[in-house]
């Protein structure tokens, strides 16, 4: 069975030369490079606060605030990421290179948005809200891994291209 390594001819590179040039020239690439780790740190802090609330029953307000901040960061990175995709690939979302990451991002956004709706409509108890937040965070973690793997593929492609 032939190997399907990231730099094997069986796999199309993530970026064409023109797309790589647009990516490297765009200020939106820097924006994404800053927002992604910031959002991850916010996620980690919020995760600890949510777990603390669920374990002790204390800190509901700060846990809720942290989820709202995490959700705002998610919305911001999604909007700026769509602009980045438009600059690099010519379409706002679902570019072939990031299709599945974008599809899963919609699920992440849906879960975070469901949390906000449930919070402001009092549709769920505090504990249920925190469980919903954890589901949103689990989806976010999977999505983050998807993007990190794509970043790694892009770096491997760049090394092969040099």
Descriptive account of the structure:
With 162 residues, the protein is mainly α. The chain is built from 5 helices and no strands. Helix 3 runs antiparallel to helix 4 and helix 4 runs antiparallel to helix 5. The longest helix has 36 residues. The radius of gyration is 18 Å and the shape is elongated. The mean pLDDT is 92.
Summarize the structure.
This protein is an all-alpha fold. The protein contains five helices and no strands.
Topology (elements, then pairings):
Layout: H1 17-25, H2 27-56, H3 60-89, H4 99-121, H5 126-161
Please provide the ordered H/E string of secondary-structure elements. HHHHH
Strand content: under 5%
**Helical region count?**
5
Please give the alpha-carbon distance between the first and last residues. Answer: 28 Å
- Mean pLDDT level: 92
Q: Which word captures the global form?
A: elongated
Q: Helix/strand/pairing class, anyone?
A: mainly alpha
Uncertain residue ranges: none
Could you give a short account of the major beta sheet?
Answer: none
Q: Tell me the radius of gyration.
A: 18 Å
* Number of DSSP E strands: 0
Helix content: over 70%
